Amino acid sequence: MLVTHAFVDLWRMIEEDKSFDKALFDLLDEPERDFMKYCLNKCKITSRGFESAYNQLLDGLVKRLKMLEGAKNIGDDSPLIKTELKSILDKLYEKGVFSTSYYSQFKRLMKL
Known about the structure:
2 domains
């Protein structure tokens, strides 16, 4: 995978300086963020700053998922809600937020 200079700079900062720069993190696109998380885990390098910033993005998706679930539960049958709900659910599953059984159960419950 090709990575940007921002990825390399942030990696060096986390590994060598044991620090974190949110501005550099914000320059990374989603695949780079996921790849950095994977690399940090594989190398057993911890960074509270990185984990916090990464999890904030996931928290936003979880909040949106809950909001859409609430709309669906009160009877909103808009196809746009169903599409967005499935998209967010798939994205969170890919990132390992849900187990396979929870993912399947949620899809069945929401009739996706």
